[in-house]
Design goal:
Blueprint: H1 3-25, H2 32-60, H3 73-77
Length: 81
């Protein structure tokens, strides 16, 4: 997956996240399924950003960015800010 496709995926995920958060703030949704989906979206977004960072790092050292992979959800969520 190239950077453009990763950014497209991020845009799609962000749009869904914003829609869910808006509907939730308006009281339209409040189920466990929606809350679970928000957590899943946040984790997937973190993985997408991680993949972009890893691809950028690979390029900076002359490695093939297509050989990089995103960290697991647990790994990415465990990063310190």
């Amino acid at each position: 997956m190239d950077d453009t496709k990763i950014f497209e995926r991020i845009d799609t995920l962000v749009a869904e996240e914003h829609s869910l958060r808006l509907r939730r703030s308006q009281g339209d949704i409040d189920s466990d399924a929606e809350r679970d989906r928000l957590v899943e979206l946040e984790q997937t977004l973190d993985q997408c950003w991680d993949l972009l960072r890893r691809r950028r790092a690979a390029r900076s050292v002359g490695a093939d960015p297509d050989d990089t992979h995103a960290g697991s959800g647990n790994q990415v969520e465990g990063y310190l800010q």
